[in-house]
Batch of 2 targets.
Target 1
Amino acid sequence: MPDKKPISSVNDFVVRFANVNGSGSASANEMFARAILRHGVPVSPRNIFPSNIQGLPTWYEVRVTEAGHLGARGGVDMMVAMNPQTWDKDVAGIEPGGYLFYDSTKPMPSTKFRDDITVIGVPLTAITNSTYTDPRQRQLFKNIIYLGSLSALLDMDPKLIEQLIGEQYKGKEKLLSSNVHALHLGRDWALQNLKCPIGLRVKKSDKVGDRIFIEGNSAAALGAVYGGATVCAWYPITPSSSVAEAFTAHCKKYRHDPETGKAKYAIVQGEDELASIGIVIGASWNGARAFTATSGPGISLMTEFIGLSYFAEIPAVIMNIQRAGPSTGMPTRTQQCDIIACAYASHGDTKHVLLFPEDPAEAFEFAAAAFDLAERLQTTIFLMLDLDIGMNHRLSRPLKWDDAKQYDRGKIMTAEMLEEGRDFGRYLDVDGDGIPYRTYPGTHPTKGSYFTRGTSRDRYARYSEEGTVYADNMQRLVRKFETAQDLVPRPLQANAERPTKYGVIYFGSTSPAMDEAIGLLEARGHQLDRLRIRAFPFHSSVASFLAEHDFVYVVEQNRDSQLRQLIVNENGIDPVRLVPIVHYDGTPITARFIAKAIGDHQDHLKVTPLRKAVS
Amino acid sequence: MTYIAKPKFHHPGLKKNELGYTHRDYEGKISTLCAGCGHDSITASIIEACYELSIEPHRVAKISGIGCSSKTPDYFLGNSHGFNSVHGRMPSVLTGANLANRDLIYLGVSGDGDSASIGFGQFAHSIRRGVNMTYIVENNGVYGLTKGQFSATADRGSKSKKGVTNTDNPIDLVAIALQLGATFVARSFSGDKSQLVPLIAAAIGHKGASFIDVISPCIAFNNHAGSTKSFDYVREHNDAVNRLDVLVGRDPIAVDYAPGTVQVVEQHDGSRIALRKIDADYDPHDRLGAMTFLQKHAAKGQIVTGLLYVDPDAEDMHEHLNTVEAPLNSLEADSLCPGSAVLDKFNASLR
């Protein structure tokens, strides 16, 4: 018996699987997460994987959370330790009173365990080897066998797992029955030899509702389909490749002409990121909706073209699935570290629109909206995702689309308008919003053509190096950026129950952890108003929020507090009033981290003055 | 010069083409290049070819990179949209433009710095993909706009104006284009309009990646003794394999050719190229033969010009991608957006 009371918890615990990359564990682990969802209990799974295809350690963490906290929690209640390489670290990471599940085929010395945890051994290799002879089968079914054992230990309904297996292997009867068989091998062994269930239990509930289980990258790619993207050019880079791959899969399903079978899209895998953005710029210049998906190093390579898009005013959509930088950094770890790099990408004076979705549902909506914004504003729009949203399955509200919606193609001067004698100046601000009209190539035999260039030119697109002409154009671009403020998604504010002088600003994948942290902070007596920023340029409500609070915490996942820098820079406010709360070790930020960092700062602020204490 | 508007009036008796356009309708702004620049002769040949083909000027998209050559699209087809993009990146911008609207004619204009150095990768990959375009390199072996540095096509041993000898090996873009699978490959000389005009016309008619390397002496920095891209040197070492006429159902373009055997090549767009061969053994359908021929003559210090290779049955990128016939930029929400009913099903599949 452990010398610490075993953790007892229903529908609120963390299970972590430690596996070897390439061992086929991913699909069994994902099935575990899905099976819990089928019990009506929300889960939040995360893949923690190396930049490697086979052999290195990989982890899959499932947070079971009836309360619906979808951020990472931190800590592990049950470790499924399937990787000898990481055994010591994995065992050390278990919470006191937690559980260790391992393959007991080979006896382990007692020094390899801990006294304050419950150790559960199942002879997985022995069971597998006595049932299967083929080495590949042995490896794959071992994963399903431990899934079966866990179902008994955690009191899960095996029928729900069988149902999932049935859906996965629909039409492949042999695979279906052999998987179900393996599941029961593990389950029956546990029921016969172990005390089931343990303190951690899954109990049927109804907290999942109509939510869907989807990766942010897939949702963003579908947003591009719904948003009318016809050209996608990309270069493989983790963690963004699955955007282009999902776009390809979605297009195959939804974008072929039913009669001719022909494709209403074109996808090109470029030779590099320069070509990818070049193709996007060329296609957008010619009137198609085009995008690329990339990550930090790709953004660095694309910056010259991004400057061209800004200055020559050509729409482009770039989905940046952020990972830890700089340089190659940690390619498979998450961060929000390209805020400054994207906001001011390129040499010269530039500013770009950034969108910050918090989850797959917003990734879908903002991706579709990005194409309207790009064509309306005739410039680059960044969709700023990160690995945490992009590459993990997340429980998300269902995706929604309004069939009455038409695409906003922006200010296009047509052949008819030119024929009517409308004055066409490619860089002429006719409406006072900084946005000029453009023509598509090939519009009219004698009117509306112009020469697009990255060099300075006048309002009629004629080359000019006159200082006043150059400055006039640069000022118009500032006006256009001001127009963007009211077109992009607005910040969302949520106030504390009682009026407070303190606020917190956050964005993107920090959302679920922040929402949970608010509850933890309230329990400690700290009241905070919240503002979730959803886009740059900042709406005027950001300045109001800053004015209404003495101190505002800015919570983000990078070292240099980049959003805070951007807010200080763009709003010209005293930086002392913006307190950075940063988390940048490559793991997703947790509620525990945020609550501690803000709570400690609050305690410090509220420290009773010495004189008052002694009087 | 940029500030001087080109007068629009012209002689009332100026000849018109099939569509009723005069030569002037294919011109652009006044060139700002040096007087006598080879590039201006290429500009004149492009104008001539487009006039002869009776192309609607606004249905051409002219795309270039950065450099002297890349400025020239401003000097022809003034009623066409042009895009002077980023140094070395014309091929990707053109590829994207072509994906968006397969119905326009794409003219890519580049230089030897733009295509053989900074943009060597993009040059290669646009050819590999079979983008339907006419890719013209105005090749002078020198960086003109930055005043005379060697480019990657400068021959080893050639001397710069300042007297420096080039010690690096040259890149022969024609040889590379053949190796990469370009389906129309030619070389010409800016001073040889009678050869160049029909080559450009034939390249425009070709469906697939057409590449023309045009030796174009830089009179400011690469037209001295010791240069292998000077007018004198190229005239002395030019070895034309063939001369051609382009027949578009009317009078063939008048060319000044040496007589020889004639071979007619029919192109996808219905136009025919009549090849007047000088070298009776030369077969323009033999890619491997062309590569060998090129190397043998290069070893002898000869610059082979003419139509070196053509595949009249070439496929282009849109065929590889199986895209719809309608230009992608013409499709609207009704055709592109799957709608809410499909989305509901999608949601249901993720529960």
Target 2
Amino acid sequence: MEQKNGPASMPKQHQGLPFHIIKRVNIPIWKKILVYAIAIAGGLLLSGLICAAFSDESPLYFFTCLFKGAFGTERKIWLLLLDAALLLGVSMALIPAFKMKFWNLGGNGQILIACLCSYSLSFFLGGKIPEWLLLLLMFAASLVSGIIWALIPALFKAFFNTNETLFTLMMNYIATGIVLYCRASWISSGSAQFPTLTNGILPKIYNNMLPTVVVFVLLTLVMFVYLKYSKHGYEISVVGESVNTAKYIGINVKKVIIRTMILSGAIAGLVGFFLIARTGPGLSGDTTNNMGFTAIMTSWLASFNPLLMFLSCFFISFITRGMSQVQQGFHLTSNSIVSIVVGLIYFCVIACSFFINYRIVFRKKEGK
Amino acid sequence: MAKEVLIEFQNITKAFGSLVANNGISMDVLRGEILSVLGENGCGKTTLMNMLAGIYYPDSGRILIRGKETAIRSPKDAFDQKIGMIHQHFKLIPVFSAAENVVLGVNNGSGYNLKNAKKTIGEMCDRYGFHIDPDKKIYEMSVSEKQTVEIIKVLYRGADILILDEPTAVLTPQEIEKLFAVLRAMRDDGKSIIIITHKLNEVMEISDRVAVLRKGQHIATVETGKTNVQQLTEMMVGKKITLNIDREQVKDTADRLQIVDLNCTNAEGVKVLDHVSFTAKSGEILGIAGIAGSGQKELLEAIAGLQKLDSGSIIFNRPKKNLPVSFFHKTMGQVIALAAQGKFHYEDGTPVDFTGKSKKEIRALVNDGKILFNEDEVMSLRDKTPLQIRELGVRLSFVPEDRLGMGLVGSMDIIDNMMLRSYRKGKSILLNRKRPETLANEVVKGLEVVTPDLHTPVRKLSGGNVQKVLVGREISSAPKVLMAAYPVRGLDINSSYLIYNLLSKQKKDGAAVIFVGEDLDVLLGLCDRILVMNAGRVTGIVDARSVTKEEIGFLMTKTDK
């Protein structure tokens, strides 16, 4: 970056101000962690004050609720882990694509279509075939449908260089539309809900959350190795960084795009499978809980590093879980308060990167 | 003759982050002189002048103009002080005519009056010897014409201090002559001209005084008449260096790469290669000269398998006649197929016939070097991808013009960049970083790459070190054909000569080297033959030892067939 000190990239000099802004060259890791910690603490504090302002409770109570909501009971802890694991799964679906600078905003659609496919198998075949076969079929159908949903924009990108951002986004709406259509045509009672089915449920190990958590934690570790130590991962990085370099060394860019999106879609499909088969099939338009978008945030926060994603996914799930308790404790009726707080914390975390990239120097104590 | 001091820098310091671009610079500019500001890339020449032009503001120090301390906070302030800067990258609006660009943004009370402006432009042209059609649109102009418009633009704003940032970088020798004549005319008219440059011969030719900067510091300002190239170089680099390229006589050449009648049209439908034919020989450096954008890039990319061609052929000759067959380039299947076609003979000259022989026997024969080729191998590289070319066993290396955009991956470290060409080796799905690490170590040591460690992203290295990493990787495979496009662009003198000598070494080792350059002196000193291109056509292939710069300049602009 240092070489690109063109006029446009330079911070403006204001003679009148008592300080100016200088780009940092290096920042020690402890300082970086400190900046993030301060940002998160600041965001939480600000959120506490806002919640307190809308009710009679004290800001301190905000933190009590937050932690109670996330860690209050054993079940709550398990739910938190489950949420974090699912989010981790979706993030793992997105990062290979993101590393390739293929902006896959279609996580939601890929998961939803996988949910629909595995649900429909249980809906139509449940009870008619052995349970293990049903689960196997649901698993395969989820993966294949996730792959198809991811592959369509990938093929267009590879062969016609269409904009993947809009394409994947639109695929979400198509998926939602198909789910709504199926509901209207399959459910004769006119109910707004798909019925919860009793076939196609994964066996419990300890409880019905542990398998999901284990699967996605393992997946994350595998993804870390895949991206960092495999030839495929290397090709993904090269294509993401510079398509010209990739061509120059003879990487088949089309192939890499398609292969990576198949992987991405398959993982999204896997998440869909677990969403349906974990507790017994039930389906609605918001089964995905918008994780396809939340995972974009967690991926960026972790700067596409799978290991850091443990932190970012856990943190976001913690806030979301904790906030539902805060909402109750503070008697806030509107759901939006959760979004406001999450948004505030995002904002603080993103804003603090300014202090990671730049430092402020006051005029009196000039550097060297 | 004591001239009036027009501008005085006093103790100017300017830092970007931890990088101190200008460190306590004090120097002056006189009225009616041509001052060269000389220094290597990144020594702070442009930064210093940008402070005069109102683009940066100094962290500390004072600028005195006509004896008065002046704060220049914007380009407008600079114009008010009659200072105009012509940047390296022109700032013109392509769809406007020359005159429209000139009057743009000028508010002298008389309003927008194109007719008067054209008259003024005409007067200026007469006075200083310009040639420009004020109604011509910018996008129709050559680089040299655009530069003229930029100069008129600042003159029109009443500048009598002109700063030109690397004005000759994109001009042909003839155009440079014209520019210098104009500059001299302006100086004689009492204007002060500052030229930012790192080309020594131009400094000697045009300037009255030379200010030398090194690593952000002002080393000295000397009168051109009282110095010489060697002394200036030493001031610029800080130590004595020898500026010699060892050019050995060509020996044992063989036709290595035959390019026949290449034609290529780009995405905009412009013909970028027009019936290009030539032969690159092993053990020689073939230089390619031409104004930037004459098809050099497309030509090299076509050979490297990155450019789609309309027609033509690219033939690679691998000298194999009477040499043993090996499994290095050929698989067992290929060996059997070629033997069936009667392509091999035994040492005693009898033709090879494998009928009735087991694979084991054949393997033993080949490994013992008993099977020889009848003829050289000839293969077509046209319409092959870079990977296919490599799979044919053709060791073709390419140092592209855009180092970080094509040759390397900026965010990856040196080891991962070393791996770009070789990461596929082996059957494992995982990467093996051991060999690339050894290679990275060798390159860093051998080419004196300055880097904190092997894990630094190459983007953070300086231009010269980035180039060393790239060239180091490309020559590590002992290439049979080595192509390098502008390999010293942006490099300091030391690094440049290191690269020249690496190319010479490759030539000595028998590679066919193709070198695209812009500095004609270097082309003349380094190459054995020079191919000149203009507008996608080969306008001449000349002997580098006997040709003159002017002849090449003539070929660079030759348009008729």
